[in-house]
C-alpha cells in the first residue's frame, strides 16, 4: 500500500507529463488502447468521477448553502463563458463541424476536478473551488445537453435526452456513490488508505481515455492538429482571463479570483471525450478535440498556478526591497 500511495502522489504531481507520454506512445502503438471504447470508456470515466465523490464530505455540500452568491456567480460564469467562447471561436475560426462540435462540447461540460488541486497549489480558495466543481457537476445532466442543443442543434443532430442519460450515469451516480461511501466509511483507516491511491487511479483512467481516442482517431491529428490545438489554446486561455475578470468585477478576493479563473478555464474534458465518442461517433475530430483539451487543460492549469505563485514571490520580494530602502533612508 505504501508503494501505491507514493505512486499515486507521483502521478498526481506529474499528471500532464504522464498523459502526454501516453498520448505520444499511443501514436506509435495505437493497438495498445483499442480496448478503450464504448462501455469500457464509460466505466473508466465513471471510476474517475467516483474518485471525486470519495473526496466529498458533508462539509463540502454545506459550502453550497453557506456561500450561495459565490457559487451562483461561479456557476453562471462556468455555463456562459465557456460555451459562448467555444461557439464564437468556431464561427470566427471557421472550424470544421467535427472540431467545432468537440470544442463546444468541452465548453458545455462542467468544471474539471483538477482545478481543485490547482487552486490549492496557487493558494486559491479551495472551498470555493470544491463548491463550484460540485455545483457545475450536479447541474451538468441538464445544462450540458440543453446548451449543446441550443448552440449546435441547428448544424448537427444533438440527442439531448441521450446526453442527459449518459451524464447521469457517468457523473451523478458515481459521485453520489463515492460521497455516500465517504459519509459512512470516511473515518475508517482502511478507507483513508484507499482514498490516498485514488488520485493515481484517476490519472491512469484519464490517460486511458486519451489513449483510446488517439488509437481510433490519432491519424486525424496530422491533418487538423494545428487547427485543433489553436482552438483549444484560445478557448482555454480566454476562459482563464474572463473567469478572472468576473471575479474582479464582482469584488472577489485574490484567492477567489484565482479559483474562479481556474474553474472557468479548466473543463471536465474527459466527460466531453466520452460524450463525443458516444453521441458524435460520425465526427471523430470531436472526440480528438476533447482529448487534446484533456491534455492541454492539465498543462495550462499547472502553468497558471505556477504563474500565480511566481507573482506572489515577486510581490513579496518587492515589499522586502521597499522595507530595506525605507530602513536605509532612516539611517541616512
Strand residues, percent? under 5%
Fraction of residues in helix: over 70%
Q: Which consecutive residue ranges, at least 5 long each, have pLDDT under 50? A: none
Shape descriptor? globular
Tell me the major beta sheet.
none
Distance between the termini: 62 Å
Q: Average pLDDT value?
A: 85
Task: Please provide a written account of the structure.
The structure is a single chain. With about 325 residues, the protein is an all-alpha fold. It is about 85% helix and about 0% strand. α5 crosses α8 and α11 packs antiparallel against α12. The protein starts with a helix and ends with a helix.
Describe the protein's topology.
Blueprint: H1 2-13, H2 15-28, H3 38-54, H4 58-66, H5 68-92, H6 97-108, H7 114-121, H8 126-152, H9 160-185, H10 189-217, H11 221-249, H12 254-265, H13 269-279, H14 284-331
What structural keywords apply?
332 residues, mainly alpha
Please summarize what this structure is.
The chain is mainly alpha-helical. Helices cover 84% and strands 0% of the residues. Helix 3 (38-54) packs across helix 9, helix 3 (38-54) packs antiparallel against helix 13 (269-279) and helix 7 runs antiparallel to helix 12 (254-265).
